[in-house]
């Protein structure tokens, strides 16, 4: 058998994309709650257009999402039927501290997650919990500018102390900050940053990232004091970057593009800023504000494992004219003529997952965890009432074969695999429901219509067999 016996098979979700109930149970407003569907979505997520509250002219998908807040028992029972060993989910920060700077946590929010974790554990499903998955309390965005303020470290620390103390016997695996490198690409969507005209946006983003890295280290320090058995991981929006040609200039460009993202994990996994990052800041004229004790905090509180999302590889060129021909993705990437693309233009590269696993394991020598991987596609119900998503089965099968090869042939240490959107949920990038990832169909459309009824797709039974066989049975009989 290729994979470890305790390999953690499962699926992944995020609070703001599935929970709904956006102001129920005394929950406060968060940045993701004010990001609408439609043409304003990406400009707002990039911090280019200010949106500090909801209005009547937009539709906000997170407000109801798929109503996991009320339907979690039904959904977790379906995950258990598939045989999940783990469920990745996130905490909505404003369920616990509605304003972010509250002195006393919200008991209704804490109780909700107690109930969710208890429901998982009832079926033997290990919760894998992301502390913040793009969630920032809007009160903190308005009053202190979110992560641009060092005070955010204290607010995040209070959140962590509350969570680790409350759930120390229910949750073993924690991720500190989801896709931490996305702060460079979606600064408001991922970290609540809004820019004013004339500001040095790059300096603000990297200073905010420094605060997040300190917060991640504080979380690790706190967790180990409360329960030494807790395992803390970082989380990267991962992918390897290929060079457009064998030209040394292109190879160098690809290497530097990868470093832009690896730098975050270099700090979280190795405990210090790498020299190449320090030189990059020098060239950019950025001087990060360190305080006494920052370096020691980072050095002494590195993560136990490295987790990452993977949807496809990236391609870059040193030629400015070539680099204008970008593919459809939130990350800058060229079109790779050797790869197929999804309906949304995302390039599909299963071998790239093996390449990325090896790159990360070679670099950090720590256990890895694939916590997001999946295919967004239009799913239709046929005349028999079935959803024949063979394209999803093919995509996931090829990626499983790739990570099995990384384990068996390359010696990569892999803890588990959670497919993104194991149940249909709101797409983070587009805000659509029609961009479906799940093994379970949810009856809802892009305009907020539908019954929210759950329905198994063909991939449901296929993934169940994959898990039962620990990845040995990948083909339908």
Explain what this protein looks like in three dimensions.
The chain is α/β, with parallel strands linked by helices. Helices cover 39% and strands 13% of the residues. It is built from 15 helices and 14 strands. It has helices spanning 15-18, 41-45, 68-82, 93-96, 107-122, 138-144, 151-167, 187-191, 201-226, 248-270, 275-284, 294-300, 350-364, 390-408, 458-468, and strands at residues 8-12, 86-90, 126-132, 173-177, 231-238, 241-243, 305-310, 314-316, 340-341, 347-348, 368-372, 414-420, 440-442, 454-456. The protein has an 8-stranded parallel β-barrel, surrounded by 6 helices. It has a two-stranded parallel ribbon with strand order 6-8. Helix 3 (68-82) runs parallel beside helix 5 (107-122), helix 7 runs parallel beside helix 9 (201-226) and helix 9 (201-226) packs across helix 12 (294-300). The radius of gyration is 21 Å and the shape is globular. The mean pLDDT is 96.
């Amino acid at each position: 058998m290729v994979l470890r016996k305790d390999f953690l098979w499962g699926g992944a979700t995020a609070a703001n994309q599935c929970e709904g109930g956006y102001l129920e149970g005394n929950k406060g407003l968060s940045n993701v709650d004010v990001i609408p569907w439609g043409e304003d979505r990406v400009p707002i997520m990039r911090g280019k257009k200010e949106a500090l509250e909801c209005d009547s002219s937009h539709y906000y998908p997170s407000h109801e999402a798929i109503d996991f807040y009320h339907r979690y028992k039904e959904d977790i029972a379906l995950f258990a039927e598939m045989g999940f060993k783990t469920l990745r989910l996130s905490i909505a920060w404003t369920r616990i501290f509605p304003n972010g700077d509250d002195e006393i946590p919200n008991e209704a929010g804490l109780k909700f997650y107690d109930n969710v974790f208890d429901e998982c554990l009832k079926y033997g499903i290990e919760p894998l919990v992301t502390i913040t998955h793009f969630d920032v309390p809007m009160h903190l965005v308005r009053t202190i500018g979110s992560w641009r303020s060092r005070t955010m470290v204290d607010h995040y620390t209070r959140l962590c102390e509350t969570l680790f103390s409350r759930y120390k016997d229910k949750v073993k695996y924690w991720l500190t900050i989801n896709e931490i490198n996305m702060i460079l690409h979606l600064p408001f969507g991922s970290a609540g940053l809004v820019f004013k005209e004339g500001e040095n946006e790059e300096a603000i983003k990297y200073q905010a990232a420094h605060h997040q890295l300190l917060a991640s280290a504080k979380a690790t320090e706190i967790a180990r004091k409360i329960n030494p058995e807790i395992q803390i991981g970082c989380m990267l929006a991962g992918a390897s970057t290929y060079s457009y040609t064998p030209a040394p200039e292109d190879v160098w460009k690809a290497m530097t593009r990868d470093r832009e993202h690896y730098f975050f994990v270099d700090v979280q996994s190795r405990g210090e800023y790498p020299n190449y990052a320090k030189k990059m800041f020098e060239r950019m004229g950025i001087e990060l504000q360190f305080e006494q004790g920052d370096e020691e905090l980072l050095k002494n509180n590195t993560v136990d494992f490295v987790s990452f999302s993977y949807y496809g590889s990236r391609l870059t060129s040193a030629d400015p004219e070539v680099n204008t021909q970008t593919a459809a993705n939130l990350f800058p990437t060229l079109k790779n003529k050797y790869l197929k693309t999804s309906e949304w233009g995302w390039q599909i590269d299963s071998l790239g997952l093996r390449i990325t696993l090896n790159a990360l394991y070679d670099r950090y020598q720590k256990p890895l965890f694939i916590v997001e991987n999946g295919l967004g596609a239009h799913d239709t119900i046929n005349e028999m009432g079935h959803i024949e998503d063979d394209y999803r089965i093919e995509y996931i099968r090829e990626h499983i074969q790739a990570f099995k090869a990384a384990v068996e042939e390359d010696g990569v240490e892999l803890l588990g695999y959670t497919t993104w959107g194991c149940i249909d949920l709101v797409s983070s990038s587009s805000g659509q429901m029609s961009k479906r990832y799940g093994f379970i169909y949810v009856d809802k459309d892009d305009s907020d219509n539908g019954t929210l009824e759950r329905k198994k797709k063909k991939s449901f039974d296929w993934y169940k067999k994959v898990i039962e066989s620990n990845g040995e049975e990948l083909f339908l009989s």
